[in-house]
Amino acid sequence: MSGGTVGTLLEVRDLHTTFSIPAGDVRAVRGVSFDLERGRTLGIVGESGSGKTVLARSIMRLNIGTNVTTTGTATFDGRDVLSLPHAAMQDLWGPEMAMVFQDPMTALNPLVRVGRQLTEHLRHHLGVSKAEADRTAVELLREVRIPEPEARLRAYPHELSGGMRQRVCIAIALACAPSLLFADEPTTALDVTVQHQILNLLGREQADRDMAMVLVTHDLGVVAGRTDETLVMYAGTVVEQAPTRALFADMRHPYSEALLRSIPRTNRPSHTRLAAITGRPPDLIAPPAGCAFSPRCPYAQDRCHEEAPPLAPSGGDASHAFACWTPVGSPEAAESFARNVADGLPSAVAVDLASGGAS
Amino acid sequence: MLPFIAKRIVRLAATLVAVSFLTFLLVNLLPGDAINALIPIDAQQDREFVEQVREEWGLNDPMLVRYARWLGDAATGDFGDSIVTSRTVSDEIFHRLPVTAELMLVTVGLSVLLAVPLGVAAAYREGTRVDQFVSGLSQVFLSIPGFVAGLFLIYVFAMKLGWLPATGWNRLSDGLLDNLKTVILPALSLALIEIAVYTRVVRSDVIGTLQETYVLSARSKGLKDRYILFRHCLRPSSLTLITVVGLNIGSLLGGTVVVEFLFAMPGLGKRLLDAIFQRDFMMVQGITVFIATVYVAVNTLVDLVYMVVDPRIRKAD
């Protein structure tokens, strides 16, 4: 591994990913830029179809198929991975970048013993003997808190529980000591009780190994307190980008606010109506002309439907950027919200009802 | 495991009773009379003698009675005697079996060995020229019947090039090379269709497997494509192939009849054909039941192979 322990590890600039299908070009990621420092964590948040998984896979060059085009740059440790030959990528995958997938039921080969899945890349990349690889595998399994690790090497994936399998997947991803780990919705397919354990495990490994991590999730609650920086994505674009602490202290984009509002809370009385986001995500073949969120936004004005707002910081904090004409908390937002409620706009009425019908 | 085998044995027995009864019925419906095989035409003038022979061989009994008698004998391992050669049917079968068994093994082995790499390559390069070439080739192979392929191969390799004998059979004890020389052309003419079918099956299964997340996850570990194809994709993609190989054993056994005839091989298929022409009822009956047994046994074996390939099936049964 080259470079020190400080400095930028990953620099993504104006990344676009498009899938060509018979119905047209699906523009899944539209112009994403961000930096990730070594040993830091980035949360990418958005609902299904917002482009967060495609973004992660684009950076890792794991979108397969001849119909995918990715443009822009993704500079990893000084090299633009988007222009590297396949063979060079194969050397990065494992020792430099690794990924934990959403569903541990499908991410492990059901016909291959856990031991081989844990050691095959270890042996390939590091050229260690089978015995040595097995020893490392046992250590890894112990590290991810799997009981009786020696016996587990001989097990098939179906003999393990979902949480155990995700622990195995994490051990596999960590095996070659990558400097960047992508965790793509690592807890979505798991029981709620297991989710915390897995997230804590990822956090502990990230800190112990001083490894950079990109945590992709649809749950704002997951990134809170677990990431240094957060990127909120909607319809393939970044709508808000800030240090996680700053984001939660002062959420400016209506979509971020809506995401936060749609998390069920245990401290509310039971049967409280959940504030779901009304409407559907936009068509990515022909995205709306203005702000992509405007059709579902309770604060939308005419301008929002016509002109896309740029992603830019406002006020004193240069690190907190958002793309909105009527940011949350602004006088414009309050004004258009009152008008939208009066006009009976579903998105505004739903928010109004959920907050107790104040206006 | 034990209940599994017990279930299979019951099913095997039921299948064999059904097959043997149907064969008995069909052989019985064949035009012609076994008496022609037993007594020369000129001796048939003596009606009394003919009647006596008929009684002796039980030819006058109703069909059901004759079938019951055959079944009873068969249960004790006695499949009767050939009317023509007067050797026992079991003797004839075991005398002829090695030829057909070798032909089948070479055919299936050759087909699988060629079809797996072809199918994997086509799937890996789906939509490219490699894929189009393999698919085109299998289309051609698929549309050539075994006997046509056989005639063509004889023409090219035996008559034009003179590399291999056109007909005949050298036993394995005559030397491996000589033996292979006589088995390769018949096996190849049977294998063409098998290669085509297996290639298609492997191709489509591997294409399906390549979509799996665990293949993506193997890629994300930086493993080489060839390793991923053969160590991660092939096994999950082989279940259909195994099924088809098992099922095709039946049509292959049928195919050997024609091919053994074409290449004048002293195999079971050739013997069956002769027996049909000679109205050698016991022989036809015996060989048919034997083939049915092999078929059912092979497919039971296939179910066992599933368990070897997929650990999840092991648990279920």
How do the strands and helices of this protein lay out in sequence?
The complex is a heterodimer of chains A (359) and B (317).
Chain A: E1 8-21, E2 24-37, E3 41-45, H1 52-59, E4 68-76, E5 79-80, H2 86-92, E6 97-100, H3 104-107, H4 114-126, H5 130-143, H6 149-152, H7 162-174, E7 180-184, H8 192-209, E8 212-217, H9 220-223, E9 229-234, E10 237-243, H10 244-249, H11 254-261, H12 302-306, E11 312-313, E12 321-322, H13 331-342, H14 346-354
Parallel strand pairs in A: 3-8, 3-9, 6-7, 7-8
Antiparallel strand pairs in A: 1-2, 1-4, 4-5, 9-10, 10-12, 11-12
Chain B: H1 2-29, H2 35-38, H3 47-57, H4 63-75, H5 89-124, H6 129-142, H7 146-160, H8 176-210, H9 213-219, H10 225-233, H11 239-262, H12 268-277, H13 281-309, H14 311-316
What features would you describe in this structure?
The complex is a heterodimer of chains A (359) and B (317). The longest helix of chain A is centred in the middle third of the chain and has 18 residues, at 192-209. Chain A contains 14 helices and twelve strands. By secondary structure, chain A is an alpha/beta fold. In chain A, the strands form two sheets. Chain A has an eight-stranded mixed sheet with strand order 6-7-8-3-9-10-12-11, sandwiched between helices. Chain A has a four-stranded antiparallel sheet with strand order 2-1-4-5. Among the domains of chain A are: 1-85 and 92-96 and 215-249, Rossmann fold (3-Layer(aba) Sandwich), CATH 3.40.50.300; 251-354, no CATH class. In chain A, 35% of the residues lie in helices and 21% in strands. Chain B is mostly helical and 317 residues long. Chain B has two domains: 2-75, no CATH class; 96-316, MetI-like fold (Orthogonal Bundle), CATH 1.10.3720.10. Chain B is globular, with a radius of gyration of 24 Å. The model of chain B has no long low-confidence stretch (mean pLDDT 87).
